[in-house]
Amino acid sequence: MWTFDNFPSARVQNTYGFSPGQAWLDHVRLSSVRLALGCSGSFVSPNGLVMTNHHCARRCIQDLSTPQQDLTASGFYARTQAEERTCPRMEINQLVGMQDVTARVQGATKGLSGEAFNRAQKAEFARIEKACQTSDQLRCEVVTLYHGGLYQLHTYKRWRKDVRLVFAPEESIAFFGGDPDNFNFPRYDLDVSFVRVYEDGEPLQTPEYFRWSDAGPREGELTFVSGNPGHTSRLLTVAQLASLRDETIPLKLERLAQERGWVAQFAERGTEARRISRDTLFGVENAYKAWFGRRDALTDPVFFASKVKEEQSLRARVAKVPALQKEVGGAWDAIAQATRVEEKLERETTWIRSESKYYSELFGIARNLVWGVAERQKPDTERYREFTDARLPATELVTFSKAPIHSELEVELLTLGLTKMREELGADHPYVHEVLGKESPRQLATRVVQGTKLYDVALRRSLWNGGPAAIAASEDPMIGLVRRLDPEMRAARKAYEDQVESVVRKNSELIAKARFQLEGTRNYPDATFTPRLSYGSVRGWTREDGVQVKPFTDFAGAFTRATGEPPFDLPQSWLKAKDRLTPTTPFDFVTTNDIIGGNSGSPVVNRSAEVVGLVFDGNLPSLGGDYGFDLRNNRTVAVDSRALTEALRVVYGADRLVQELQPAAARTTGPR
Amino acid sequence: MWTFDNFPSARVQNTYGFSPGQAWLDHVRLSSVRLALGCSGSFVSPNGLVMTNHHCARRCIQDLSTPQQDLTASGFYARTQAEERTCPRMEINQLVGMQDVTARVQGATKGLSGEAFNRAQKAEFARIEKACQTSDQLRCEVVTLYHGGLYQLHTYKRWRKDVRLVFAPEESIAFFGGDPDNFNFPRYDLDVSFVRVYEDGEPLQTPEYFRWSDAGPREGELTFVSGNPGHTSRLLTVAQLASLRDETIPLKLERLAQERGWVAQFAERGTEARRISRDTLFGVENAYKAWFGRRDALTDPVFFASKVKEEQSLRARVAKVPALQKEVGGAWDAIAQATRVEEKLERETTWIRSESKYYSELFGIARNLVWGVAERQKPDTERYREFTDARLPATELVTFSKAPIHSELEVELLTLGLTKMREELGADHPYVHEVLGKESPRQLATRVVQGTKLYDVALRRSLWNGGPAAIAASEDPMIGLVRRLDPEMRAARKAYEDQVESVVRKNSELIAKARFQLEGTRNYPDATFTPRLSYGSVRGWTREDGVQVKPFTDFAGAFTRATGEPPFDLPQSWLKAKDRLTPTTPFDFVTTNDIIGGNSGSPVVNRSAEVVGLVFDGNLPSLGGDYGFDLRNNRTVAVDSRALTEALRVVYGADRLVQELQPAAARTTGPR
Q: Tell me, what's the pLDDT at B670?
């Protein structure tokens, strides 16, 4: 997960005989994009065409669907450019600048701790970002790398007003095998979608883009994955890892499991219930499995012991340098202490600070409005991070999204959220009385979800623009609920930030400094949802039970595995095209690239920077990658470029799209 | 949790100045009963009247309900004896004999290990039980105490054909506060029901019964709880406790959480769905909370360290006695090794051995039929334990219960079970292919649940009596499914019994021997769902946050706490009676008695062996009691005898019942 400005080209040269130069790295970086809501993608034509996963565009696909036209089920293809349809909420970023701001940030917090540390650091972040943010078309972010060893200002080009859906297959082939197969391999998924960036009503010109490989990848071949791994915890202390293993993850898993059962059974109400809850359920099941895999890694005693050993070694090396020991020696215990506090505050953080939003989109929107209006009254440097000028556009994207909100589902989710809050805080907790009064969770949820007018984006904007007076005067029940809870929500947030976050940030920075002094940038920083480049190769692995897993699947395998029943049902389009598809065409494949959630939609490219695949998943062992990469069995799962073009052409007749991806090949390929 | 034959009367004398004598102990034992499906109770009149919890009779109450007459919601009171209604499945036991059979059991397994050990031990159990079981009206059980330090043959009188419901309040007062308040205190619950044992159509004569205390309990007063604590793990090794904490309990909790969400959302389909799923949901939520509390105890580092220390001390003492060390020294490691195997087999044990029955009652019945018919062909000593002659009546009680089975709920539960099986074993597991073939979990569940005729008890009997030929010839789809899976189910059971159970049993017995040699019976054995007597006193406690919890609540508190919305809604009968109830009447109270699941329905008695209360719960810290009792904060929660009689008289006008409980008081109490 190397940053583009510290890529170990020499190591790649040693192992694979290829040394990416600066021009190559720049080209790859500029051809790659970030989907701001949590995925990766790539430009694959000079006309702003972006390739990503189906599951990265599923919110858009769902948002454009109606009860009459379910694009998630049926798929979508714009036969002409005019048919391309704008996604209600999608933001695409391209990293154009990286600047070291470590001295500024560390200077601003010198000698501070606790709340003062946090406040000074956030204010400095806000100042740096605001100065950079000269236009709405830029996105400036101060990024904490190496847990504070290095601070960088990242400047992105940002497109968020007009990104249009071009192509998406049926969910049944994009996510063939469904939840049972998620994070597994062998796989047979066409998890792809194409969108296009528009500017001023015209396709964006993107001279930097990846060319298409007709040949696809070969076993053993060097592969690069360029994308935005969201979050890893490889540099956490042992105390933090133990807390995750013993406290945080179990609670998360149990909440997710209950939500999963709740939403999955809701979907059984009927076709429309299934349609409107599909995205939520997908998200919940995906998160459940991911956390499950992480816990699996942390409960492996051998793996955990390696973490303990690593930390002991670092602490021993620190102890040998008196100045370092004096400055840094106490950091581990300080973090351990803050971690105990974090555990104590966990329920308040989840349910009073309302990190969970009680599972409700409307509650989240109302909270953004109430908080945002209040925060914008303050100087930029004193606001909650998400409402600083530099970050407002991203917050607004979610808050003013035109995506439909389904009240039937919202009632169920909020009911569950309020019920869990009461359960976890206890029925006699003062906050529970404040929230519920004499109402039951379902009564309150029904009243505010059915009574609110926040479905109307114009109303949201008028509250936002109306300022504190408009919020105070609003008779909207959801706004009223948030307004009433606001003091406690803020207090819980403050408790967490002052007692946990600030201590962890400060002391992690100290440890990072020590690591830097002792190791430099010989390693990559933990993932932070910023562009990274990983190298690896196409390679299978040996499972725990001894079975050898081959690196490629093929089209024939999909037809063999299909049962006709979800989630193992192939769409009609595929059943019809069966005889015209080449059974031996490689479908999905695995590589040793190091990825994590957020990398979804990343291109797999060869040394010529050609697209040979599209990352859409990792195998189960790769979930432990949150805490450390294990070359023996962590694998990236991708769709083969040959599968993509053959399916587009033969199954979907998407000639316009194939022509754009493969201008040369399309000309020369006759009928098969 | 002392056994009746090893009660520490001298210790009680020292602390409380009262020494229970043999006659007192015999009287208490014979006045106490066990509800074979998992609860406790007591005779409270000479005419076979049994007091237990509402939640212990809820299956009966539910079984007697119909869509038109929902007794769980409305409550039930038989104004005359003729109105008392037979419960479809309830078995009541009274312990009449205890005999030491340690020498026989240990003699039978001498020199054996692994499968041979297990087989010999089970055969000896079966022989002893069969010789004892001279009549259908007895229930003989070889009980393993001190994990094999002591084996006893328990002989119970058994009544299972005609137990009738006499009284049950509305669920809303029996379980006021619902899941949020479960395992909490202060409480305001009237968790009581009365049933009556009949023999030959007449009320059973029960000369041994508890008299009623009009005075109720006083703060600080000595209290005894006589009941059947189901299971504790206080003598488990550290390896076993760690495995529970890190592997078994998290998996259990996540499965339960998902089932909880699934069933709770199913209940939202409507009134009838709520009615038919209520029991299942109650069971799931109760289990979830109980396991949650146990995990809480095990993840407390101080508590766990005390367990480690205790084991180290025992091992050190063993090591000092060469003969003991030679025989026993390897037992801890052997158990640790078997525990690793158990973890490896966990998914197979749950899903292939079908310990979960895929959450389906019908599947469980079909499995009992298929297995039972086959097992009964074998000599008694070679059968699965639940099909030995001594245990058949209990198995038959469940298998041939007339309780209604609701196919709508069964489809949902089996769908969930099959889905979880596929998820946990993996979609490509051969067993998953064997179970599902090309069907989806829902298709298979729907087909077998809708196609089976096993709702008909007569059909079940005819298969049972028809023997292997009838099972082989059956075209019932549920029988067919079980028949098809039978070889794998048996293989998984065998793997568990040979590789885990037998090793653990043998080595636990060795450790127990060592403990015995070093400590004798100075301590009580782990709970085994056999009659135990606990002493303690009425006492509040100090919560972790410093709050002092008083030992009593009163009627007034219930009315203050009521919101009018479930689960905090009082029934109409209570709202109407409000002015006639004495607000200061004590309602629920807590004691320091040591209890655990299975103790529900136990009487709390004073030194005169009078009923002063009815155990229905423990507080949250008491859930850790599975691994050790903590006098500081583990508390038993009970209904006060004064609340019981006042509610019966004033709210329910249950004069016949009050007269039976309090023949003297009923005569002298005028209108209030």
A: 36
* Binding-site residues on chain A for chain B (CB distance < 8 A): 177, 179-181, 184, 246-247, 250, 253-255, 257-266, 268-269, 292, 295, 299, 412, 416, 422-423, 426-427, 436-440, 443, 563-566, 568
DSSP H or E run through A646: helix A641-646
Of A135, A60, A65, which Cα lies nearest the Cα of A96?
A135
Q: How far is B457 from chain A (nearest CA, A)?
A: 30
Cβ distance A439 to B565 less than 8 Å, yes or no, reads yes
pLDDT mean over B524-542 = 95
Are A265 and B260 an interchain contact pair (Cβ–Cβ within 8 Å)?
no
CB hemisphere CA count around B300 (13 angstroms): 16
pLDDT tens digit sequence for B8-47: 999 999 999 999 999 999 999 999 999 998 999 999 999 9
Indicate whether A664 pLDDT > 80: no
Residue range A123-167, pLDDT digits in tens: 999 999 999 999 989 999 999 998 888 999 999 999 998 999 999
Task: Say if the ipTM goes beyond 0.95.
Answer: no
Q: Mapping DSSP to helix (H, G, I), strand (E, B) and coil, where does residue A393 land?
A: helix
Which of A251, A262, A289, A545 should one mutate to test binding to chain B, selecting the residue with the greatest count of B CBs within 10 A?
A262
- Nearest of B375, B378, B399 to residue B387 by alpha carbon: B375
Given a cut of 80, is residue A665 above it in pLDDT?
no
Q: Are B532 and B152 in contact (CB under 8 A)?
A: no
Across the interface, whether the CB atoms of A563 and B177 are under 8 A apart is answered: no
The whole-model pTM stands at: 0.91
Instruction: Report chain B residues whose CB lies below 8 A from the CB of A264.
Output: 261-262
Selecting from 3.40.1410.10, 3.40.50.1110, 3.90.1330.10, 2.40.10.120, what CATH number does the domain A2-91+160-230+529-668 have?
2.40.10.120
CA dist A578 and A555 (Å) reads 9
Pairing of strands B138-145, B150-159: antiparallel
**Do the chains contact at A263 and B262, CB–CB below 8 Å?**
no
Can you state the percent helix, strand and coil of chain A, rounding each to 5? 50, 15, 30
CATH 3.40.640.10 for domain B2-91+160-233+525-617+628-668, yes or no, is no
CA gap A163, A90 in Å, rounded: 7
DSSP state of A631: T
Optimal mutation site among A268, A269, A429, A547, interface B, most CBs of chain B within 10 A: A268
pLDDT digits (tens, 9 = 90+) for A3-51: 999 999 999 999 999 999 999 999 999 999 999 989 999 999 999 999 9
Residue B342 has pLDDT above 70, yes or no: yes
Q: Could you tell me the pLDDT band of residue B667, with boundaries at 50, 70 and 90?
A: very low
**pLDDT score at B513:** 85
Rg of chain B taking only CA atoms, in angstroms: 25
Q: Is the pLDDT of residue A666 over 60?
A: no
Smallest CA–CA distance, residue A343 to chain B, in Å, is 12
Mutate to test the interface with B, among A280, A348, A563, A568 (most CBs of B within 10 A): A563
**Is B87 a residue whose pLDDT tops 80?**
yes
Q: Do A299 and B438 touch (CB under 8 A)?
A: no
Per the rule left: phi > 0, alpha: psi between -120 and 50, beta: everything else, A205 is beta
Residue with tokens 């003492």: B317
Q: Which amino acid is at A625?
A: G
Cβ contacts (< 8 Å) between B565 and chain A: which residues? 438-440, 443
Interatomic CA distance for residues B210 and B224, integer angstroms: 12
Which residues, at least 6 apart from B599, have a Cβ–Cβ distance to it below 8 Å? B40, B225, B227, B228, B229, B230, B615, B636
Residues in B touching A423 (Cβ below 8 Å): 179-180
Is there a contact between B169 and B544 (Cβ–Cβ < 8 Å)?
no
